[in-house]
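To whoever is on call:

I kicked off a structure prediction for a single chain this morning and the downstream step that reads the tokens threw a length-mismatch warning. I double-checked the sequence; it's 156 residues and nothing unusual in it as far as I can see. Pasting both halves so you can look.
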Amino acid sequence: MTTLHLDEAHGDHAYALGPNLCENDRRWISAAYTDGKDYPEEAVRLSIEESEQAFTICDDEGELLGVWGHGAWDRPTGFGFVWLLSTETLWNRHYPALQRAWKRFILPKLDSIYEKYGATILSDNAKLVSWLRLSGFTPETRSDRTGKLFTLYTRS
């Protein structure tokens, strides 16, 4: 059984992860960032830097499978954000371990910090929609102002 290891992320991890991002994350970055299609590493770096905390997700051999982070969207109300950018390998080979880390470490950490938190995702990312719904997230707002339909899912 694989154990995923979560350690503090820094900007250099963006350049290691960027070329290996899964297709859904590439599409998200392309729609959310002006130069995202050409420079996905910069979008990952900005996500790391703009978060209060960011963590790498590595397997037992040290392979970088993803980076996740969180921060306050609105500190006075306790509303936070969470994000995950990852490789296909994380979802295809390590899904059970990801689910364990999500339920045992990540969700309890976020629940202890924020009254409510959310993630904005591409609405047609069926795997992520299902994963968030099974984790108690509900859809709140939709927008297609970038030309792609995004949905904000929240949990409280």
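Update from on-call: the warning came from a stale cache, not from the record. Cleared it. Sanity check on the structure: The beta strands are 5-8, 53-58, 64-74, 79-86, 116-122, 138-143, 150-155.
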